[in-house]
Amino acid sequence: MSPNEKKTSVLAALSLVFLVLAAAFGLKPAGPPAREAIPLVDTNFLSTATARVSYGELVRQKADLSDFDCYACHEKGKAPVIRFDTNQVILIPKEHGNIAMGHGSHNRNNNCFNCHNELNLERFQTRDGRELTFAESTQLCGSCHGPTYRDWEGGAHGRTGGFWDPALGKTTRRNCVECHDPHSPKFPSRAPAPGPHPLREVVHPAGETHASH
User: Fold this and answer.
1) Residue 59: which of 72, 70, 49, 68 has the closest Cα?
2) What confidence score (pLDDT) does residue 28 get?
């Protein structure tokens, strides 16, 4: 084969390659590469509100505290009478019909005066003889639930907010009754929050979709 023939063959082969490439690019869909959307977090997991509003929080909000005025109905200095049925289950008077007694298993803690001071209904009483205000209810819980109270103090139990490093700012801890109903403290189960998204951009060729892992 002469040099001119070789040159012609090479040019023909190159032309064919370029035609094939041009056809391949022409068949690909137009547009930028597909980018994987970062899913939005359910707004229920973004709220910092607690399940309940405590007495202390109501005081800070300067809210109406008339529901905590025990002596609007009860007589001062006289212990209210607590009644039980034949199975020793406490009978809740209709005035306190919103209370569901369920503190402790097997009805072992069904006496109001295990926590409330019978002669001063505006105070709590602990088993070691201390008197506490309604705003000091977490100390009342800790007088029986020692290990949990220790975990709460260390930040392992309950909701901790603010800064872990006190040099950077204030750390806040929510009181027990801001999550637990003191009369029926078992906390209902909740769906776990989703894991953190790595926030790394994942780009796929146009027309392709893949799940990130």
Assistant:
1) 68
2) 59
Measure Cα distances from 70 to 53, 60, 115, 190, 192 in Å: 19, 20, 15, 34, 39
Determine if residue 155 is left, alpha or beta; phi over 0 gives left, psi from -120 to 50 gives alpha, anything else beta. Answer: left
The one-letter amino acid code at 175 reads N
Give the residue among 179, 160, 177, 178 at the shortest CA–CA distance from 169: 160
Mean pLDDT of 155-184: 89
* Higher-scoring residue by pLDDT: 128, 11: 128
Distance (Å) of CA 131 to CA 126, 187, 192: 7, 26, 38
Distance CA 126, CA 139 (A): 9
- Token pair for 107: 């009805």
Alpha-carbon span 166 to 19, nearest angstrom: 69
CB 27 within 8 A of CB 207: no
The span from the CA of 14 to the CA of 8, in Å, is 10
In whole angstroms, what is the distance from residue 166 CA to residue 158 CA? Answer: 18
Is 173's pLDDT higher than 50? yes
**Is the predicted pLDDT of residue 208 greater than 60, yes or no?**
no
